[in-house]
Amino acid sequence: MEKETFISEINEIFQRIDEGVILKSDILKLLTLPEDKTSYLFERARKIRDKFDGKEVNLRALIEFSNYCKRNCYYCGLRRDNRNLKRYRMSIDEILDVAGEAYELGFKTIVLQSGEDPWFDGKKVGEIIRRIKKSYNVAVTLCLGEREEWEYAFWKECGADRYLLKHETVDSSLYRKLQPDPEMTLERRIENLRILKELGYQIGAGNMIGLPGQTLESIAEDILFMKEMDVDMAGIGPFIPHPNTPLSYVRKPGSVNIVLKTLAILRLVMKTILLPATTALATVDPKGREKGLLAGANVIMPNLTPIHYRVHYEIYLNKRCLREDILSCKRCLETMISSMGLEVSKGFGHSRKVKNQNLKVKGQGEKGKTEVEYLKLDGIK
Ligand code: SAH
Fold first, then answer.
1. E strands, the chain, where?
2. Nearest CA among 22, 45, 49 for reference residue 274
3. Pocket test for ligand 1, best of 75, 189, 279, 315 (most atoms within 8 A of CB)
């Protein structure tokens, strides 16, 4: 394709998206951009991130406090039938200690993640949240899978701010193939997300890229779904086959380039969204985090799980920074972030949706222009 035709075609897509016209055909077009043309998309995504969310990266301290799981998801190394995994649970005091360490190091968000472990019942998790919120001035994100509605409600009361429950794929027949348990359905996963949203959580969804049988069309549907759900965060990462799971036959992890394009398109479509450059991305590509930030991501979740536990939180193998101590990890990230002309956010890194809605109204009043028009004004030359 001639360069000029290409640019005008892509610009038309960008313009439609800015005007709020989100077409599946446009998303597909962007998803299929050849690799030598993606820089144009990524540059646009960065501009939008910088404009709406600032040139800031939010660091979240991840604590993986239990790798026990009652589920049997075909893709995940924590699945209950994986007998080759040494299981662990951190004690509540240990979790509190790590949260304190994270706070001392300047982290403003603690992410509590685990397998679906009934030992950590609603009450115990509530106690952890309450104690963290009482002792440290931090936001709390939960990533504990599908739980009872009363638990979600109780944890919100205890002070939890956000909940990350990746929808994994919005293709229901593909979803079915990832789950042996007939109870675990896509509908149920989405219903959980709706409940969490209604309870006032900032919600995070997200899909894996490169699942067997997944098509680009279904990834486009994932993007449309997250837009429609108006999620606050999206965890997008490559699927990495784990040898002790039924999906071990998959030869390669998901494509880095498709992950990056998905991040960038989400940034275009949703403007203010918390988008992690995920550990999975950094695992399949040593420059994954940098590439994620260059494609419009604005969150990194360093792992603060004590190393002797961390090595057993084996969702997939050879995780990035598996044996890195947190001080050197934090320094390394800060250097990387500032070398990219970005800075580490000093705030809690809450969803900016509300803030930007105000901005928009203000903009209209002062200059008679909408946000969309602003974007067009400093559009790509
Ligand atoms: N049990 C919780 C949280 C732990 S799993 C839950 O289900 O939400 C967290 C995420 O890890 C999952 O949502 C999934 O997207 C991702 N994951 C699991 N196995 C993976 C694999 N093999 N490759 C890449 N990501 C994986």
1. 56-59, 61-66, 109-114, 139-143, 162-164, 202-205, 208-209, 233-234, 237-238, 299-300, 343-344
2. 49
3. 315
Q: Which ligand 1 atom sits closest to the C-alpha of 241?
A: 22
State if residue 211 touches ligand 1 by the CB under 6 angstroms criterion.
Answer: no
DSSP state of 31: H
| 253 DSSP 8-state letter | P
pLDDT value for 374: 34
CA of 315 to the centre of ligand 1 (A): 6
The mean per-residue pLDDT over the stretch 182-187 comes to 96
Longest dimension (CA), the chain: 63
Closest by CA to 112, choosing from 77, 143, 157, 73, is 143
More confident residue, 39 or 368: 39
What residue type is 136 in one-letter code?
A: Y
Ligand 1 atom 19, closest CA: 76
DSSP code for 120: S
DSSP 36: G
- With a 6 Å cutoff on the Cβ, whether 205 touches ligand 1 is no
Instruction: Give Cβ neighbours of residue 204 (< 8 Å, ≥ 6 apart).
Output: 141, 162, 163, 164, 165, 166, 231, 232, 233, 234, 235, 274
Does ligand 1 come within 6 angstroms of the Cβ of 237? yes
Tokens 């001639």 -> residue? 2
Ligand 1 atom at minimal distance to the Cα of residue 280: 24
Predicted pLDDT of residue 1: 54
- DSSP per-residue codes, 222-250: HHHHHHHHT-SEE--EE----TTSGGGG-
How far apart (Å, rounded) are the C-alpha atoms in residues 346 and 59?
9
33 close to ligand 1 (CB < 6 Angstrom): no
pLDDT digits (tens, 9 = 90+) for 142-151: 999 999 999 9
How far apart (Å, rounded) are the C-alpha atoms in residues 14 and 83? 49
Tens digits of residue pLDDT in 290-310: 999 999 999 999 999 999 999
Stronger pLDDT, 376 or 341, i.e. the higher one: 341
Pocket test for ligand 1, best of 69, 125, 208 (most atoms within 8 A of CB): 208
* Mean pLDDT of all residues belonging to the chain: 92
